[in-house]
Amino acid sequence: MNAIKKIGITAISGMMLLTLPSVATANDPGGCFMVTSSGKTVSLGQLCGMTPPPSTPKVFRIPIKRRIGKTPIIDVTFNGNQVFEMVVDTGATGILITQEVATALKLQPSGTMKASIADGSIVEFKTSNVLTVSVGGAVLNNAKVAIAPKARIGLLGHDFFEKYDLKILEKQVEFYPR
């Protein structure tokens, strides 16, 4: 009898409603659920006034178009409507665009920055800001970009994906919001 009082069983229209104390375990349906006649567990958290569990964050999956060496190239959208190929560069601090991209976006340089490049030398780039840089549904607003006049392709670096965990798969790159 004590066990029934602690757990709390209620019959509703031939179904059994079971309310358990809040103890989290793997695959726990929550403290308020029912089991259908077919054995399926259905959460009744809202009905019992319980807060639903946090939802799984949205994952942004972007197809890899090709690779340079083993480094993925993906489509990146600027200002909501102009798409350019860029390297997903986990070793780059910022976002680097080509002069052709800067011209297409009608960017005016607003400053300069010095950066160390892959060969260890220090170079100076003109900089500008872009309204949005997006990949799938992942978006960075008011993004600072470096303009590289001699680059053939842009680099998408940490300034873009610093709020995401990345997973580079064979055919796609996944961005997981932190």
From TrEMBL:
Acetylation among the record's keywords?
A: no
Q: Which residues form a coiled coil?
A: none
Gene Ontology terms for molecular function: peptidase activity
Biological process terms in GO annotation: proteolysis
InterPro entries associated with the record:
Peptidase_aspartic_dom_sf, Retropepsin-like_bacterial
Q: Which UniProt keywords apply?
A: Hydrolase, Protease, Signal
Pfam families, per database record: gag-asp_proteas (PF13975)
Which segment of the chain is annotated as a signal peptide? 1-26
Name of the protein in its database record: Retroviral-like aspartic protease family protein
Q: Which organism is it from?
A: Anabaena sphaerica FACHB-251
Q: What is the lineage of its organism?
A: Bacteria, Bacillati, Cyanobacteriota, Cyanophyceae, Nostocales
